[in-house]
Queue: 4 jobs
Job 1
Amino acid sequence: MKVLLLTTGSRGDVQPFLALARGLTEAGHEATVAAPRRFAALSAEVGAEFVGLDDSLFVLQDELVGAGTWAAITAASRARPYLQRWLDDLASLAGTRADVVVFTQKTLGGASIAEKLGVPAIPAQLIPTVPATSAFASPLAPARTPRALARLTWSLADAVERPWRGMVARWRAERLGLASRAPRFASLVAAGGILSAWSPHLLPAPSDWPASAAPLGFWTVPAAPDWHGSPALEAFLDDGPPPVLVGFGSMTHRDPAALAAEVVAGLRRAGRRGLIVSGWAGLGATSAAEDVHVVDAVPFASVLPRVAAIVHHGGVGTVAAAMRAGVPQVVHPFFGDQPFWARRLHELGVAPPTLSSLTADGLAASLAQVDALVPAARRIRAALAGEDGVAAARARIEAAVGGHG
């Protein structure tokens, strides 16, 4: 079968789909990921077929770093031309040969492409946004939302679509020749379920969810058995006790040098060596030293088993990698669903309380707690060893295509 996978966002939004594409290909199917074109190199590393789409929205995201609340509130109007370019690129996929389309809510037009092709449309989610539940508040809700209001907060996910429905309606009519009214994401989920790409060992399905929405397991790329870092990195990893890995993925920071200084000071106060992954946060602003090694990027699946703990932003992709490696986690969330995962990891006993602001003293205090969390982290690693989220998703996709045929 030919599978078209549509996603957009940061690396954490794209890499799981590359893992799914690889798993589908290894099972004998043809899978293509269509995503922002800046992830072409990552796709090549994973070995997945890739179509690059417009990624100019990242320009606006970079401009908003540190710009304040009002700038973020008023950004919707500025985003329109960027999202129009995204939709126009998405329309080019209407000539693609596919038997099924798997897509996230943020793609906006994913279901429309499936409709144009006349093939099944399968929603997917990397964090829980649908269906609504009374068991806990949406990961997008404020941290201190009262339990009585939990179900109401799930309407926040619908806000992803609401500002752009008029734009999508015109795009459907003008570019795809479809009726202007697009099916809502939540309606598609209610009708046919959704591929939920996280582990039930991280967050089990609440009792009021249907089985068709239950988490299938993480979509991760296996560690390369023959991977080796640069000679300098290998020497650093071998030349002392396991370091603490620090990296904030695709997050950006208004003052990278100040953030890097706090990180290094916190590591030293805790008596820890540090492996710093500079990433988009620009942590490379710090200088390497005998106790600190700086790299642009590393494959977490290969490196995390060799560290003592990881300090990160709380993106679910990094959470998954750390859980699979069995290492404690210190989480300094930036925004969105990250505080939700930070609280959840603390509940599971694999992370200290959320590090809401990153200071040298706060980081050192958190690192003083991680050794006691190792047994819980290793128990979860053992539980995840028998889980294969990619295979579970593949089975669901195969069933959908078989039923459609």
Note: The chain is about 40% helix and 10% strand.
Job 2
Amino acid sequence: PMFKKVLVANRGEIAVRILRACEERGVETVAVYSDADRNALHVRYANEAYHIGPPPSAESYLRIDKIIDVAKKAGADAIHPGYGFLAENDDFAQAVIDAGITFIGPSPESMRLMGDKISARKTVMAAGVPVVPGTAAGLRDEQIQAEAAAIGFPVLIKASAGGGGKGMRAVRTPEELEPSLGAARREAKSAFGDDTVYLEKLIERPRHIEIQILGDKHGHVIHLGERECSIQRRHQKLIEEAPSVAVSAELRARMGEVAVKAAQSVGYYSAGTMEFLLDQSGNFYFLEMNTRLQVEHPVTELVTGVDIVKEMMTIADGRRLRWKQEDIKPKGWAIECRI
């Protein structure tokens, strides 16, 4: 086995998923739990389990100090963050590394670069990746209004630190812009503690296509094809499908090539997802990157035969990817419903 003992810094279904991958690899496991999860499946499934605090996540699963303390106490030599909680927190990744423990995920530097939507846009644009026309962040309202006129309506206001549709507003006329800016800033401040917003051209009736990538620490990056997640409610994904009915083999190859190039531009390794908008004419634009394992990873695993969680462990251990791009041939169909 690559690691003797892995701590899973998460709960619920994703914790069980990672624990199972460890067990199949012959790696011992450590679970953490709050008071609310004392009898949860992930606690019973792991070889060892440690209490880390009361039910609120801010006092348990989000406590970096407690998680690292448990890892040291248990003798874990690696930590997998799962998704949600601390999964995209570069401070957590750095703290794990500073404690002499392997972080099963990307480097803190690439998380930092790609975690902020504005810096991610700048980074991929420099690498020649197409992005939706838009503005820089940090502009005053009057500057944004001037830029909106130049981009042309309809436009989309987005929170720089955002996610899950928070701080997002579609604006179809100049008259709607000022009140929408105020509302978006207030919502972003409340959700993320940061009211920085920017504008993007609103692509009408786009498809939301994401490309799963895997990269090792030796500069080898491949893609595992696409997932379609266009069926959404309040900008939250409901249905995930792989492959997409709208993506031909030729388009898949082009989008995959762009996703790989974007990942390589920041020296990215581990699992990650590049999200794109696909318009009615077949043009696609980079939206953002998720620097973690995603909820929807199983649909890609089912059609490619690649175990993404096990590959993350292999990569974290410094080993080379055993897959080449030509090995990845989607077979069959998979759908996930987010209930």
Note: The first helix runs from residue 12 to 24.
Job 3
Amino acid sequence: VSRQRIPLAVTPAAAEVFVDGARVEGPAPSELELRSDRAHVLFFKLEGYQAGRVVLRSVPEDGDTRLEPGGVRVELGPLSGKSRQVEIELE
């Protein structure tokens, strides 16, 4: 089964990261190694911040598969105040 490394940047770094519903132990990792033959759902949450969600799609490529996007940067916005947003940048 093919695997792919997905660069990951999460702000704040204390945010919890979930992959397909399972919590990733410890602080947010700088990359994830995932099977490329199926889609994955990434979920990010931290108390006091707006949660974020990203879906990685599995796409065919040269007889194999790869995940898109190939990198994820997530910035969770605080729930307090006027700014209630999550910034997500996909590579």
Note: The CA atoms of residues 74 and 88 lie 5 Å apart.
Job 4
Amino acid sequence: MGSLLHTAKLKKVAIFLGINSSAGGMFQYAQSIIDAVKFSKSEKIEFIIIYTDNEWKNQLVDYPCKTYQIKNSKFGNLLSKFLVLLQLSINTSKFISRHLNPIVKEVMKLKPDIIFYPCQDYLSFQTDIVSISTIHDLMHIYENEFTEVSKNLRFIYRQYRYKAICSNSKAILVDSEVGKNHVLESYDVDKDIIFPLHYVPPKYIYNNKKNNAEINLPKKYLFYPAQFWEHKNHKRLLKAIKLSKEKFNDINIVFTGRKNHIYKELLNYVKELSLEENVHFIGKIEDVHMSDFYKKARALIFPSFFGPTNIPPLEAIVCDCPMAVSGIYGMPSQLKNSALYFDPRDVLSISECINQLWSDDKTCELLLKNSQIVKNEISFEIFTERFISIIENI
């Protein structure tokens, strides 16, 4: 007697990577997502990865799922932005994109059941395919004094984009409970489709490769890896270093990041404060060397205004680097008692934390001891399990 075996159809889920490393933290997050896909043992999902930039090609060489590179059409990207500028209805945007956007046409040929967008992409509401989207932050609302998120048409772009994401997405991923509350406070969206997925340290931070470049680092230094945006708060940090120098003449801080945005302005500010001997700009460093800079540092100082949570403090935890960070939004919940906290608007508050980390070995040792609890909570295994569970249950 025979029997028929009925096999449930696998859900075909595409991960769309429309960015490159210039996107900073979002790029790192996207890397964590594709690593979760790589190690997924789901029996319900067939993952595929779609990417546009050549930068992803080497990273995807040994991935077990199918990968597709599609042409990063300038016309397609401009069309997506133009549709946002016009603020058309979602259905109208989808109709135009379906017929005119080469990127959308290529994606639709692959016929995924769902597309997951790790990076707040315009296409998340400009295709007819069911979408899952990430909202990393709403700082254009909560920190709109900073021109990088509010000047010219940026605020309008962002508002329309996030409203469209909220109304079109089957699920929305955020970085924390604070991030979830921000979305609920800002847009008309069902709380049951918002899922916190906490950040994890990027894989490269576990490398033990030492930096062999000819960079003359001071023997003892504070560390701040960040792009030179206004919201990264370099100026107040420099003022705090100036204050701390009154007590500790040997104070040093190392800045990394591409030398753009307000970099030249900061160079002049360093001269104005007479901190040329104490401040070291070393440019962008390769990811494989990042852990070495953390491990050699006395401490991480992270005065950013943006959140709700951030990735560099997690890198510091992995590398056993003590830290002081902005005590805002979701940072205290993310890091618990593994960090000192300061008011990022208060130069004295920042300086006091610097002084404590620079001079007090016992404080540094206690922070490292406390960080072990957080280290267990930010494991890649937990991240992967949570991500796959969210996707399977959509």
Note: Confidence is low (pLDDT under 50) at residues 1-6.
